[in-house]
Automatic annotation (TrEMBL):
Family of the protein in this entry: Belongs to the bacterial solute-binding protein 8 family.
Protein name: ABC transporter substrate-binding protein
Domain Fe/B12 periplasmic-binding: 43-328
Gene3D superfamilies: Nitrogenase molybdenum iron protein domain (3.40.50.1980)
Pfam family, one: Peripla_BP_2
The organism of origin for this protein: Prauserella cavernicola
Superkingdom: Bacteria
Length: 328
């Protein structure tokens, strides 16, 4: 049975005082949908860790009534803010559990979560009077067909900055949004200042040992590769995370392996430790030069997905390339 949403506020409002807030209603054009709120949302469900981390970074922890679909522990600077935020599920929550929080706004990082086959479609939430927001980094991707989609347009950090700014606008915290964008830009500049990793080949492994998900050219790993000036050995595919066999990996023999260190439990070889154990024991991979030289860069799943933590991925990758002596 679905939980009724009589207390949700209809179009994103949460009471007469909120509807009277100056500067509202506010609308953003989001992935082909006009998302309108009548007042700053007060009861938000964030269906993916990436959008949750943006909301926490904008100082909106007290507005979040539920989160879900997690891959990693939070960074130290967000952990305390998240302590009182209810987690509806570690993976994808049910529609009923989301509705039980009586949300007045729903956010998500992926069409796979907020769309057909996910928790619910945006139309389903709209029919119940609940506005929704989807990360532009995912709706600019071609999500038709099987797999994780294809990027016909190369992702840049500007798309992630757009997400920060649009959420900040809807929640009436624009100044916080600009400060966050400025901070992220500054961190990227500092991490890559004077860095030159031209000629260094990289491979990004997200999960699964039998049929590994390896990064194509143009998602978050592409942002990192471009930032450090290296080369992704699978930059000849625009698929987001194609499944590629290990024999092909051995043929391309990357200089450095960037490895997802995940805490979820939905694929094989989720943690970095399991991935490295596999790499060093498998007859095809143990002779890769990156494995022989233990050139591993361990990143969170959030860094490997389009998110504000992609900046942390650039920082860690740049630091490791310098440590390996592969970049200036």
């Amino acid at each position: 049975m679905l939980v009724p949403l009589a207390a949700c506020g209809g179009t994103g409002g949460t009471g007469d005082d909120d509807r009277a807030a100056p500067g509202y209603p506010r609308t953003v054009d989001n992935c082909g949908v006009r998302t309108t709120v009548e007042a700053p949302p007060q009861k938000v469900v964030s269906l993916n860790q990436g959008t949750t981390e943006i909301l926490l970074s904008l100082g909106l922890a007290d507005r979040i009534v539920g989160t879900a679909t997690w891959t990693d522990p939070l960074p130290d600077d967000l952990a305390a803010a998240n302590e009182g935020v209810p987690r509806l599920a570690d993976n994808m929550p049910s529609f009923e559990s989301v509705l039980s929080t009586e949300p007045d706004f729903v956010t998500a990082s992926f069409v796979a979560t907020l769309g057909k086959g996910g928790v619910a479609t945006r139309d389903q939430f709209s029919e119940l009077g609940v506005p929704s927001y989807l990360s532009p980094s995912d709706c600019t991707k071609n999500n038709e067909g099987a797999g994780d989609g294809r990027r016909d347009t190369t992702l840049t950090m500007d798309t992630i900055y757009t997400e920060v700014r649009e959420l900040a606008t809807l929640f009436d915290v624009e100044e916080r949004g600009e400060r966050l964008v400025s901070e992220l830009r500054g961190r990227l500049e500092r991490a890559t200042d004077g860095l030159d990793a031209s000629g260094v080949t990289l491979l990004y492994w997200f999960a699964n040992s039998e049929a590994p998900y390896l990064a194509g050219c143009c998602g978050a790993p592409g942002v990192m590769t471009k930032a450090v000036g290296g080369e992704n050995v699978f930059d000849d595919t625009r698929d987001e995370w194609p499944q590629i066999n290990w024999e092909t990996v051995a043929e391309r023999d990357p200089d450095v392996l960037v490895i997802g260190d995940l805490t979820r439990k939905s694929q094989t070889a989720e943690t970095a430790a399991k991935k490295i154990e596999f790499l060093e024991s498998h007859p095809v991979t143990r002779n890769l030069k990156a494995v022989r030289d233990k050139r591993y860069v361990l990143l969170s799943g959030q860094a490997l997905n389009p998110s504000i933590r992609t900046v942390a991925g650039v920082e860690e990758l740049a630091a490791k390339l310098r440590e390996f002596g592969l970049a200036g």
